[in-house]
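Subject: Interface between my chains keeps coming out wrong

I've been trying for a while to get a sensible model of this assembly. When I model each chain on its own everything looks fine, but I need the whole thing in one frame so I can look at the contacts. Pasting all components below, labels as-is. Any help appreciated, I'm running out of ideas.
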Amino acid sequence: MSRARYKLVVDPIACDGAGVCAELLPEMITLDPWGFPIIHGDEVPDGLLELARRTTVSCPRLALTLVRLDKR
Amino acid sequence: MTVATAQALTAVGGKAFWFLTRASGLVSIALLSATIVLGVVASVGWTTQRWPRFVSQDVHRNLSLLCIAFVAVHVVTTVVDGYVPIGFVDVVLPFRSPYRPIYLGLGALCFDLLLAVLITSGLRHRIGYGSWRFVHWLAYLCWPIALIHGLGSGTDTPLPIVLLVEAVCTAAVLAAFAWRLTTGRSLPIGGRTAAGIGAVVAVVAIAGFAALGPLRPGWSHRSGTSSALLSQLATKNGTASTAAAPPTTVPATSGSPTTTAPSGSSTGSGSVPAVPFTSRVTGSQTQTQPDGRGVIQITLGMHLQDAGSTPLTIVLTGQESGGGGVSLSSGTVAYGPYRGTVVGLNGGTVTMRVAAPGPITLVANLTIDQQTGSLSGSVSGASGSTGGDR
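Reply #2:
Try treating it as a single job with all components included. I did that and got this:
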């Protein structure tokens, strides 16, 4: 049985462009010219999963979430 | 000697929790202030290259947890200490403690608010952003409540270092609040103006309260005595007096808070021990019912264990405060045939100045059994009027 696979999703309504996510997870998130996040890649690699989880917790607007890719 | 040493150690050990309570309370308000300032820094979004935004957020969160830890120490030591009759229920249910109900109640209220903020922050993902933020705003309310609690019930309120810490905290939190109001665009301008005016009015009101209440001599005396002896005496009215000698032995109060000096007993009059000396004492405590104006007299009658069994009677006069507490305001002393006054009251230690006939200072370290009203301890005398350990 393989491990669960996740992707990062930004709620564009909730996000106010604080930029904390890009500070904490530059491997997968960069900011556009207005400070809003751009997610690079689809599935979060195993090695970044814990960091990604902590990044979602740190979002001041709770606009970043981890979503199961293989959810039935 | 060994008995005295053991007693001294017991006294320090018994007071350790009390000191811990006072210190952790002061540290808590400093940590709460720092938490608020960092919360504002994170919320406003101030960053530099070397201070990214997540640093403000994480330090804010960790400081708040540290603050909660100190508040926990503050609360637990207050209850465990037992000098003041505060139970675990009083910790969360405000305004029902028999001891200083208002100022202690504000502490309980603040504790409840902190718990609400802590729990909602832990469940932030479950309850959603809006609910979390609404409760999180209560942290701002928590701060002035904590400050009034500290000023009103703190034993150390008049100390310059304590006032300095509180002034610095106030300045920092006010500045942070102003910064938050001027940058927060999510609130209407009217609401922000009202909040700003409200904050300034609140701070001026708290400063006025401090100047008129805790910092005036009467209050500071009361605060200074709010440890062992006072709280031992601050029993529910009558508990101690019914068990001890009948209150008729106490000089009657004629409605006036100024008392006449107690009359010395006839035994041993004329001969008191030569100073310096230390003698063990035993005796009993009696307490009058409050008169029409709430004035209470507490009489500590005892005999020295010297050749003449010299009688020593201390009469403390005080005002009944809410919920059965007593705020002591003055004290007189009869020592053999001589008279004196109480000049210091700190825990179970009473410092007295007596003309016997030259000036001497008596220091009594007393332990009072609440159940029987009996008291025991030691009295030491020294020449001069500057002695004593207070």
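Reply #3:
Confirming on my end. The domain at 6-65 of chain A is CATH 3.30.70.20 (Alpha-Beta Plaits).
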